[in-house]
Write a structure and sequence with these properties.
Number of domains: 1
Order of helices and strands: EEEHEHHEHEEEEEEEHEHEE
GO molecular function: 3'-tRNA processing endoribonuclease activity
Oligomer: single chain
Distance between the termini: 6 Å
Helix content: 10-25%
Organism: Candidatus Nealsonbacteria bacterium RIFCSPHIGHO2_01_FULL_38_55
Number of helices: 6
CATH superfamily: Ribonuclease Z/Hydroxyacylglutathione hydrolase-like
Shape: globular
CATH class: Alpha Beta
Number of strands: 15
Largest sheet: 8 strands, mixed
Pfam families: Anti-Pycsar_Apyc1
Protein name: Metallo-beta-lactamase domain-containing protein
Amino acid sequence: MKIIFLGVGEAFDENLPNNSQLVMSGKINLLLDCGFTVPQQIWKYSQDKNLLDAIYISHQHGDHFCGLPALLVRMWEEGRKKYLTIICQKNFKEKFKEFMDFVYFGFMDKFDYKINLIEAREGEKMEFQGLNLFFEKTNHSAENLAIKVNDGKNIFCYSGDGSPKEKSEFYKNTDLAILETYLYDVNKIGHSSVIGATKFVQKNNIKCLALTHLNRDLRRNELTVLKDKIKNNKVKIIIPEPFEEYNF
Protein backbone atom coordinates (compact mmCIF):
# COMPACT_ATOMS: atom_id res chain seq x y z
CA MET A 1 0.00 0.00 0.00
CA LYS A 2 1.19 3.51 -0.74
CA ILE A 3 -0.20 7.02 -0.40
CA ILE A 4 0.24 9.89 -2.82
CA PHE A 5 -0.29 13.29 -1.24
CA LEU A 6 -2.17 14.95 -4.09
CA GLY A 7 -2.76 18.09 -2.05
CA VAL A 8 -1.63 19.28 1.37
CA GLY A 9 -2.98 22.83 1.57
CA GLU A 10 -5.70 24.47 3.61
CA ALA A 11 -8.89 25.77 2.04
CA PHE A 12 -7.65 29.15 0.81
CA ASP A 13 -3.97 28.57 0.10
CA GLU A 14 -3.25 30.03 -3.34
CA ASN A 15 -0.01 28.06 -3.66
CA LEU A 16 -1.02 24.55 -2.60
CA PRO A 17 -3.89 22.30 -3.68
CA ASN A 18 -6.51 21.23 -1.13
CA ASN A 19 -5.76 18.47 1.34
CA SER A 20 -6.33 15.14 -0.44
CA GLN A 21 -4.63 11.75 -0.63
CA LEU A 22 -4.70 8.90 -3.12
CA VAL A 23 -4.48 5.47 -1.48
CA MET A 24 -3.20 2.70 -3.74
CA SER A 25 -3.57 -0.68 -2.04
CA GLY A 26 -2.74 -2.93 -4.97
CA LYS A 27 -6.38 -3.98 -5.09
CA ILE A 28 -8.18 -0.64 -5.25
CA ASN A 29 -7.37 3.05 -5.57
CA LEU A 30 -9.19 5.19 -3.03
CA LEU A 31 -9.28 9.01 -3.12
CA LEU A 32 -9.57 10.73 0.24
CA ASP A 33 -11.51 13.98 -0.19
CA CYS A 34 -11.99 16.01 -3.36
CA GLY A 35 -11.82 19.76 -2.83
CA PHE A 36 -11.87 22.61 -5.36
CA THR A 37 -8.37 21.96 -6.68
CA VAL A 38 -8.17 18.17 -6.50
CA PRO A 39 -9.45 17.27 -10.01
CA GLN A 40 -6.48 19.05 -11.55
CA GLN A 41 -4.14 17.09 -9.30
CA ILE A 42 -5.74 13.80 -10.30
CA TRP A 43 -5.25 14.48 -14.00
CA LYS A 44 -1.70 15.71 -13.46
CA TYR A 45 -0.92 12.46 -11.68
CA SER A 46 -2.63 10.16 -14.18
CA GLN A 47 -4.61 10.51 -17.39
CA ASP A 48 -6.36 7.20 -16.68
CA LYS A 49 -10.12 7.80 -16.51
CA ASN A 50 -10.46 4.51 -14.62
CA LEU A 51 -7.77 5.25 -12.02
CA LEU A 52 -10.19 5.65 -9.11
CA ASP A 53 -12.29 2.85 -7.69
CA ALA A 54 -13.72 4.83 -4.79
CA ILE A 55 -13.82 8.30 -3.25
CA TYR A 56 -14.19 9.11 0.44
CA ILE A 57 -15.70 12.43 1.53
CA SER A 58 -14.96 13.28 5.16
CA HIS A 59 -17.33 16.23 5.55
CA GLN A 60 -19.26 18.99 3.81
CA HIS A 61 -16.75 21.81 3.57
CA GLY A 62 -15.97 22.98 0.05
CA ASP A 63 -12.25 22.26 0.17
CA HIS A 64 -13.13 18.61 0.81
CA PHE A 65 -15.93 17.91 -1.68
CA CYS A 66 -16.53 20.73 -4.18
CA GLY A 67 -14.18 19.23 -6.77
CA LEU A 68 -16.42 16.19 -7.24
CA PRO A 69 -18.59 17.53 -10.08
CA ALA A 70 -15.61 18.50 -12.22
CA LEU A 71 -13.89 15.18 -11.55
CA LEU A 72 -16.96 13.06 -12.28
CA VAL A 73 -17.93 14.98 -15.43
CA ARG A 74 -14.37 14.85 -16.75
CA MET A 75 -14.27 11.07 -16.23
CA TRP A 76 -17.54 10.77 -18.19
CA GLU A 77 -16.18 13.04 -20.91
CA GLU A 78 -13.07 10.85 -21.16
CA GLY A 79 -15.28 7.78 -21.68
CA ARG A 80 -15.33 6.12 -18.29
CA LYS A 81 -17.68 3.13 -17.96
CA LYS A 82 -16.18 1.62 -14.82
CA TYR A 83 -18.31 1.49 -11.66
CA LEU A 84 -17.45 4.11 -9.00
CA THR A 85 -18.17 4.10 -5.26
CA ILE A 86 -18.50 7.22 -3.12
CA ILE A 87 -18.32 6.71 0.65
CA CYS A 88 -19.84 9.58 2.59
CA GLN A 89 -22.09 10.61 5.44
CA LYS A 90 -25.88 10.25 5.28
CA ASN A 91 -26.62 13.93 4.69
CA PHE A 92 -24.22 14.11 1.76
CA LYS A 93 -25.61 10.92 0.26
CA GLU A 94 -29.15 12.32 0.35
CA LYS A 95 -28.16 15.62 -1.31
CA PHE A 96 -25.64 14.28 -3.83
CA LYS A 97 -27.88 14.28 -6.93
CA GLU A 98 -29.20 17.75 -6.09
CA PHE A 99 -25.62 18.97 -5.64
CA MET A 100 -24.51 17.53 -8.98
CA ASP A 101 -27.46 19.07 -10.80
CA PHE A 102 -26.82 22.44 -9.17
CA VAL A 103 -23.28 22.49 -10.56
CA TYR A 104 -23.78 20.65 -13.89
CA PHE A 105 -27.50 20.28 -14.45
CA GLY A 106 -28.49 17.04 -16.18
CA PHE A 107 -24.95 15.81 -16.77
CA MET A 108 -25.15 13.00 -14.24
CA ASP A 109 -28.07 11.50 -16.16
CA LYS A 110 -25.77 11.16 -19.17
CA PHE A 111 -23.03 9.23 -17.36
CA ASP A 112 -22.08 5.87 -18.86
CA TYR A 113 -20.86 4.65 -15.50
CA LYS A 114 -22.78 3.93 -12.32
CA ILE A 115 -22.11 5.65 -9.01
CA ASN A 116 -22.90 3.83 -5.79
CA LEU A 117 -23.09 5.92 -2.62
CA ILE A 118 -22.32 4.08 0.62
CA GLU A 119 -23.02 5.64 3.99
CA ALA A 120 -20.16 5.85 6.49
CA ARG A 121 -21.20 5.62 10.14
CA GLU A 122 -19.14 6.32 13.23
CA GLY A 123 -18.14 3.19 15.10
CA GLU A 124 -19.03 0.81 12.27
CA LYS A 125 -16.60 -1.37 10.33
CA MET A 126 -16.91 -1.40 6.54
CA GLU A 127 -15.33 -4.16 4.47
CA PHE A 128 -14.59 -2.77 1.04
CA GLN A 129 -12.72 -4.64 -1.69
CA GLY A 130 -9.97 -6.00 0.52
CA LEU A 131 -9.80 -3.04 2.88
CA ASN A 132 -11.29 -2.70 6.34
CA LEU A 133 -12.52 0.84 6.94
CA PHE A 134 -13.46 2.45 10.27
CA PHE A 135 -14.81 5.92 11.06
CA GLU A 136 -14.77 8.31 14.03
CA LYS A 137 -15.89 11.90 14.55
CA THR A 138 -13.35 14.63 15.16
CA ASN A 139 -13.69 18.00 16.88
CA HIS A 140 -14.57 20.28 13.98
CA SER A 141 -17.02 23.02 13.03
CA ALA A 142 -18.81 20.61 10.68
CA GLU A 143 -19.56 16.95 11.35
CA ASN A 144 -16.40 15.28 10.14
CA LEU A 145 -15.51 11.59 10.11
CA ALA A 146 -11.88 10.53 10.26
CA ILE A 147 -11.19 7.29 8.41
CA LYS A 148 -8.93 4.38 9.38
CA VAL A 149 -7.75 2.04 6.62
CA ASN A 150 -6.44 -1.48 7.29
CA ASP A 151 -5.20 -3.60 4.37
CA GLY A 152 -4.23 -6.55 6.58
CA LYS A 153 -0.59 -5.49 6.74
CA ASN A 154 -0.59 -1.79 7.54
CA ILE A 155 -2.97 0.67 9.15
CA PHE A 156 -3.23 4.40 8.68
CA CYS A 157 -5.67 7.14 9.65
CA TYR A 158 -6.70 10.31 7.85
CA SER A 159 -8.41 12.91 10.01
CA GLY A 160 -10.16 14.95 7.34
CA ASP A 161 -10.51 18.14 9.39
CA GLY A 162 -10.55 18.67 13.13
CA SER A 163 -8.57 17.37 16.06
CA PRO A 164 -9.04 13.82 17.39
CA LYS A 165 -11.28 13.29 20.39
CA GLU A 166 -9.30 13.77 23.58
CA LYS A 167 -9.51 10.16 24.79
CA SER A 168 -9.77 8.53 21.38
CA GLU A 169 -8.08 5.18 20.80
CA PHE A 170 -9.09 5.17 17.14
CA TYR A 171 -5.56 6.05 15.98
CA LYS A 172 -3.67 3.94 18.53
CA ASN A 173 -0.70 1.85 17.27
CA THR A 174 -1.20 2.84 13.63
CA ASP A 175 1.64 3.05 11.13
CA LEU A 176 0.73 6.51 9.88
CA ALA A 177 -1.59 9.30 10.96
CA ILE A 178 -2.37 12.07 8.47
CA LEU A 179 -3.60 14.87 10.70
CA GLU A 180 -4.67 18.31 9.57
CA THR A 181 -2.96 21.01 11.61
CA TYR A 182 -3.57 24.72 11.12
CA LEU A 183 -1.36 26.69 13.52
CA TYR A 184 1.73 25.71 15.49
CA ASP A 185 0.49 25.75 19.07
CA VAL A 186 -3.11 27.00 18.99
CA ASN A 187 -6.27 25.08 18.15
CA LYS A 188 -8.36 27.45 16.03
CA ILE A 189 -11.73 27.35 14.26
CA GLY A 190 -12.10 23.62 14.67
CA HIS A 191 -8.58 22.72 13.60
CA SER A 192 -5.76 20.91 15.37
CA SER A 193 -2.29 22.35 16.00
CA VAL A 194 1.18 21.00 15.30
CA ILE A 195 1.94 20.77 19.02
CA GLY A 196 -1.39 19.10 19.77
CA ALA A 197 -0.97 16.55 16.98
CA THR A 198 2.60 15.78 18.04
CA LYS A 199 1.61 15.10 21.64
CA PHE A 200 -1.31 13.00 20.46
CA VAL A 201 0.74 10.66 18.25
CA GLN A 202 3.36 10.19 20.96
CA LYS A 203 0.64 9.27 23.44
CA ASN A 204 -0.94 6.80 20.99
CA ASN A 205 2.21 5.02 19.78
CA ILE A 206 1.84 6.11 16.15
CA LYS A 207 4.91 5.41 14.01
CA CYS A 208 4.70 8.39 11.67
CA LEU A 209 2.79 11.68 11.64
CA ALA A 210 2.08 13.56 8.41
CA LEU A 211 1.17 17.22 8.93
CA THR A 212 -1.17 18.67 6.31
CA HIS A 213 -3.56 21.65 5.99
CA LEU A 214 -1.03 24.04 7.56
CA ASN A 215 -2.05 27.69 7.64
CA ARG A 216 -0.86 29.36 4.43
CA ASP A 217 1.13 32.08 6.24
CA LEU A 218 2.73 29.58 8.63
CA ARG A 219 3.80 27.36 5.75
CA ARG A 220 4.97 30.26 3.57
CA ASN A 221 6.94 32.14 6.21
CA GLU A 222 8.00 29.61 8.84
CA LEU A 223 8.31 26.20 7.15
CA THR A 224 12.09 25.93 7.63
CA VAL A 225 11.81 26.91 11.30
CA LEU A 226 8.89 24.51 11.75
CA LYS A 227 10.86 21.60 10.28
CA ASP A 228 13.71 22.34 12.70
CA LYS A 229 11.30 22.35 15.63
CA ILE A 230 9.81 18.95 14.82
CA LYS A 231 12.88 16.99 13.68
CA ASN A 232 14.03 15.94 17.14
CA ASN A 233 10.72 14.49 18.30
CA LYS A 234 10.46 10.87 19.44
CA VAL A 235 8.05 10.10 16.62
CA LYS A 236 8.81 10.49 12.92
CA ILE A 237 7.09 13.62 11.55
CA ILE A 238 6.84 14.60 7.91
CA ILE A 239 5.44 17.68 6.16
CA PRO A 240 4.68 16.33 2.68
CA GLU A 241 4.67 18.27 -0.57
CA PRO A 242 2.13 17.72 -3.40
CA PHE A 243 2.71 14.40 -5.21
CA GLU A 244 5.07 13.13 -2.52
CA GLU A 245 4.63 9.39 -1.89
CA TYR A 246 4.56 7.45 1.35
CA ASN A 247 5.30 3.74 1.05
CA PHE A 248 4.58 1.35 3.89
